[in-house]
Each structure stands twice: as C-alpha cells, then as structure tokens.
Amino acid sequence: MTTNFLKFNEDKTEFFIAIAEHLKCHLPPVRLRVGDKFIPPADKVRNLGVVFDSAMCMKPHITSLCSGLNLQLRNITRIRKYLDHNTCHLVVRALVLSRLDYGNALLFGSTSSDLQRLQRIQNWAAKLIHRAQKRDHATPYLQELHWLPIRERITFKIMVYIFKCLHGLVPGYLSSCLQLYHPARPSLRSASDATRLSVPNTRRHLHFASNRTFSYTVPKSWNALPKSVRNSDSISSFKRSLKTQLFMH
After folding, report:
1. Does residue 108 contact residue 154 with C-beta atoms inside 8 Å?
2. Are 169 and 140 members of one domain?
3. pLDDT tens by residue, 105-117
4. Which of 41, 92, 145, 152 has a CA positioned 20 to 30 A from the CA of residue 242?
C-alpha cells in the first residue's frame, strides 16, 4: 500500500476467520492492526456482493439475496399489468435471474432448506412472467422458459468451470486443484476414460468440512456425468449437452 501511495480506511476495513464451529473454542483471540486501530474479527463480511460468514455455510448470503430479490419481484408485480410477456421476461432475467446466478458456484454443497428458499424465488419469477396463480405448480413454467432449477443451475456453473479447467481456459490456480485419474492398472476399464478426475481421500473426522471443497466435491459430480457429455469438443456443445442432461434429472 505504501509503495503505491495508498492508505487503508480503518473504518471500512474488516476481516473474518473461516473455521468450523466445533473448533472456535480452540481459537486464540485475534485482532488485526491497521494503522493505529485494532480490528476484531467479524462474523460475516461482504466482498464483491457476496456475504461470507465464518462458518462458510453461506446462509447469511442467501438471506441477503432473498431479501433483495423479494423486493424486486414485488416491484415487478405492481407493474406486471403494463408489461407484455416478452418485456416481463427481459425484466425478470435482468433483475432477478442475473442475481440468482451471480456467484452461485459458492453455494455448491449448501443445505436443501437454504437452496429451497432461492427456489421459491425462481418459482415466483416464472409464474409472474406467465401471469400464473400463486398456488399453481411452477415446474411447467420453468420448463417452458427452459430454466434449470436452482440446484441444477449451480451444478451447471461448476461443471462449466471443470470443462474450462481441463481445456486450459481458466487461471492455473484453479486447474491445479484437479488431477486426472490414472488407475494403478492400465488394463482397467476406467483407463480409457481420458476426462475422468481423481477424487482425493479425506480424513474421516474432517469429512463434513472437506467434502464441500472444490477439489473433493467437483470431481465426484464431474465423473457422474455421461462420458459423451464430458468428451464434448467445444464449450458451446458441452453447455448444450450438459443442460439437456440436467433437465433429464
């Protein structure tokens, strides 16, 4: 900061420590010194529009996201009678769907109850476009709009990252988290699968925390895709095949 003639704003500086709940009791007191001010760790911080919490469960972010999107949908509902179908569709995609998709890869591994809160938002948006009743089932409207549900949208984003990792289209620090699978015996059937990823072993007592990491959960989901999808020859064909595959589930 000194080299670039910059100075921290102590009043806007915050930090947090990501640690499992059961380990917090072993954490010694930590304070960050910035200039003449000592800053204690916060329970949650916002960075680039995403709220990170010390437990990394992303629940505060989902709460903040739902609050903002509920407000947007209520405002659109008030003017819905003045909008035709296509215009309403564009407005919802710009104000609602874009925010549901922003940073959604960070929600990979979130609890079903948290994701269901976001799913209700998406259902409301789909029914709003089609002028459906509140009690109508949202699935037919989601399919007509060709919208993947929330959980599948997250999976779609992650799998696209993996495809880019394997084809050198992302920074090296992300690609280095993944390793191609090399079986101990070349005669095994899996040896012919050039796009299969290696799944690292995790220590049992850390399983709950480690099974949400990028290097562990992503290879399992990637390997579960059909070989024909993983072997797509371009990013555009991969996206088409992947979306079709996710709709089938």
Report:
1. yes
2. no
3. 999 888 999 999 9
4. 92
Cα–Cα distance list, 19 to 26, 29, 42, 116, 156 (Å): 10, 13, 12, 25, 28
Kindly state the average pLDDT of the residues 220-234. 90
Which of 210, 183, 205, 202 lies closest to 194, judged by CA? 183
Q: Rounded distance, CA 157 to CA 221, Å?
A: 12
Q: What percent of the chain has pLDDT over 70?
A: 92
Phi, psi of 197 (to 5 degrees): -100, 150
Residues 13-48 have pLDDT tens digits of 888 888 877 888 888 888 888 778 888 888 899 999
What is the count of structural domains for the chain? Answer: 3
Q: Spell out the residues 6+ positions from residue 206 whose beta carbon is closer than 8 angstroms to its own.
A: none
Q: Are 198 and 180 in contact (CB under 8 A)?
A: yes
Cβ proximity of 97 and 146 under 8 Å: no
> What are the start-end ranges of the E strands in the chain?
32-34, 37-39, 44-47, 50-53
In a domain, 62, yes or no: yes
Where in the sequence is the domain holding 29, given as residue range(s)? 10-42
98, 119, 147 — which closes off a domain? 147
- For the stretch 140-189, pLDDT in tens is 999 999 999 999 999 999 999 999 988 888 888 888 878 787 776 665 55
DSSP assignment letter at 96: I
**Token pair for residue 31?**
């304070």
DSSP code, position 197: B
Q: Are residues 164 and 218 in the same domain?
A: yes
